[in-house]
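Suppose a colleague, Dr. K., hands you the sequence of a protein chain of 252 amino acids and asks what its three-dimensional shape might be. Before reaching for any lab equipment, you can write down a predicted structure in token form. Begin with the sequence itself:
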Amino acid sequence: MMDANGEELAPRVRSILAAARERAGGEERLSVDARSFPSAIAAAEADGRVPVIAEVKPTSPTTEGRRDDDPVDLARAMVAGGATAISVLTEPDHFGGSTDALARVRDAVDVPVLRKDFIVEESQLDLVASDLILLIARFVDDIPGLLAAAEARGFQPLVEVHTRDELDRALSAGADLIGVNNRDLTQLEVDLDTFESIAPGVPDDVTLVAESGIGSVADVRRMRETGADALLIGSAIMDGDVTANVRRFTTA
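The predicted structure, expressed as tokens, is then:
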């Protein structure tokens, strides 16, 4: 199976994408009153915190084991540690996520909530309300169309890229919230140099998020010095005391 760039995907990613393409969408079109992510970033920085999107991630193809804490308890603990936003996995088959978990988390916290999933069809936007929605450029053939569909519903789309070509496609589509994934989804390998190579091509008026592979305070500082407005951190927060882990990164 190939991605939108014509590249061969790792077997585990092929399985995830195949499942995503078969997943049904929502029956009714959503209309969302989203909490502003840029405002949340500004509030965090005014408070002296590094803006961190903390991720509720029960498991993944690149981690061992599974964490079965109540997602609401985890999200509240992350906010207590200073998280600017919460990311919730809704992919059920490979990440242990659910739309129910996201809905419960969004009801329980007052920060923006990102739906983290592999969305490839417009109707899949209508499965659950969130503030931000992830659109992965590598898996979306029509970025302008899906971006416009998400915005028409009130979502704030975070368009994820991994290459300069994907960045150009996202910017041409009008994306003003860009995530740079340090993980290469063709091989599932992580390299923080990815962000450093792409960030200089992002206009100043675009909100830029560094994703994947951030596991230390040094990594946080490295990404921030290269231009990250916020950081998406999952495994390094889920491993242990989530409140303490979030606080360690937000005070880096």
